[in-house]
Design a protein that fits this description.
By secondary structure, this protein is mainly alpha-helical. The protein is 54% helix and 5% strand. InterPro entries: CbbY-like (IPR044999), HAD-like_sf (IPR036412), PGP-like_dom2 (IPR023198).
Length: 171
Amino acid sequence: RPPAGAASVPIGRRRAHQRAQRVAPVGASGDVAALLFDCDGVLVDTERDGHRVAFNEAFKRKGLDHVWDVDLYGHLLEIGGGKERMTKYFNDVADREPFKSITDAAARAELVKSLHLLKTDIFMEIVEGGTMPLRPGVARLVHEAIDAGVTVAVCSTSNERAVSTIVRVML
């Protein structure tokens, strides 16, 4: 219960107001001082247009007849980590290659590891090629902010080399 005399604000609205106060503009004139972006899913859809495409290309280069479409990949994203994602998928389709003929757990893990390394190299080729589209409005917003003197930064827990390359190549 709020103390006597305190305004009664629903919890959700109170928390939203408290968040807004913490992230309010800090400039003396109320101007925005900085604009921070995440990379994955904000600047570009790296999962759909990068990692998924790279997984498919890795399968193709290794002669594996597997294609992850957008819907399947969306479900696979419920599994954290690329190697874990591949392992789960190949276990689910163990009646098909490569797990059909590779039954030893260590050999399966080694195959998944090598596929993941190839996938990572292909992903970097995609990033460096600049073929992942920016999300709508991102380039305009970033350039307008910079033109207005606002500091723009990207924060991410993703691979630093990939994020830096996305920023350098696409923005």
